[in-house]
Amino acid sequence: MKTCEHVTPSICSLPLVEPRKLAANIDRNRESLVRYIEKKWVNHTSLHFYFMQDQPQLKGAENQLQAVRDAFKDWKALGIGLDFIEVARASEAEFRIGFTPGSSWSYVGRDCIDLVPNPQEQTMNFGWDLTTPYGRDTALHEIGHALGFPHEHQNHKAGIVWDEDAVYASFAAYPNYWDRATTYHNIIRKISPQDATGSPWDKDSIMHYQFDAGLILSPTEFRNAPLVPAPGLSDMDIQEALKFYPNNSASQWPKLTPFLSHKLDIMPSEQLDFIIEPDISRTYNIQTFGSLDTVIVLFEDDDAEPIYLAGDDDSGTNYNAKIALRLINGRRYYLRLRLYSAGASGEGGIMLW
């Protein structure tokens, strides 16, 4: 995270999460693609946030709540295809936000629903004032995690070589007081070390920590000078957000017709959206075909916002994604499909029947 003037800050500490288990014999490039994409939401999802003001230890002042609302607005103002809606019940929220002093953190992307299903448990915390320049970047940073973006300084393309003893000593001291496992998880550890799809290192990313001089051996320009990213969302942050969450219109989406296969002609990380308008009320099957890693999610259009109905993620497994559900004549549904990777043939399809 970033600030205009360098000080030794308290910084984000991600929860320790075990990697999702994939097929034992999975190809390393396929695994890398899955890991790169697996925590992202399908585009055009309405995401809901809730402030846990009913729990005294998690309660925040109104100016702190407003700073978080403003940060959600800043992400939305990029023109991304996600919507952010504040709700009055924890059970309706994917993001449940508290303000316990000391540490700021968030679960990453879909971990918010996959790992924290209990509506009484928070998925995001802010531990210091969000009305300062550094605090505003903190809010943007934690929301970035909730959208599925990891720490940028752990990008395997960064090429950062750490003075590991100095890093461990620095983060064991004020103001973070981290043990070695926490420091390793949040700084030393590299994400997706295989040669996988991903953006180049962006030292100005909102997802990047700032670092004191003396912690980095390479790049040499930061040996004797602090690494302090520029404030706010970087150009590459915006590019990555729009890559995963483009704001394309429903008028561009094809219609899925029963018993007609639709060829999937997209690249890894890209998404297709389909419209389904049943002529008959009955149970329908929706399934992908081919050696593909995909996630498919079905929503119903109720004129206010799309309502989640069902989903399936076949990434890293040897089966195809499938949904079987009763659909009603006269209603409109949206199927969203994101591709992780394609098999040796590079071809696949999806069918409604």
Automatic annotation (TrEMBL):
UniProt-recorded name of the protein: Peptidase metallopeptidase domain-containing protein
Signal peptide start and end residues: none
SUPFAM superfamilies linked: Metalloproteases ('zincins'), catalytic domain
Molecular function GO labels: metalloendopeptidase activity; zinc ion binding
Species, as recorded: Paraglaciecola mesophila
One GO biological process term: proteolysis
Lineage: Bacteria, Pseudomonadati, Pseudomonadota, Gammaproteobacteria, Alteromonadales
Domain Peptidase metallopeptidase: 37-205
Pfam families: Astacin
InterPro entries, per database record: MetalloPept_cat_dom_sf, Peptidase_M12A, Peptidase_Metallo
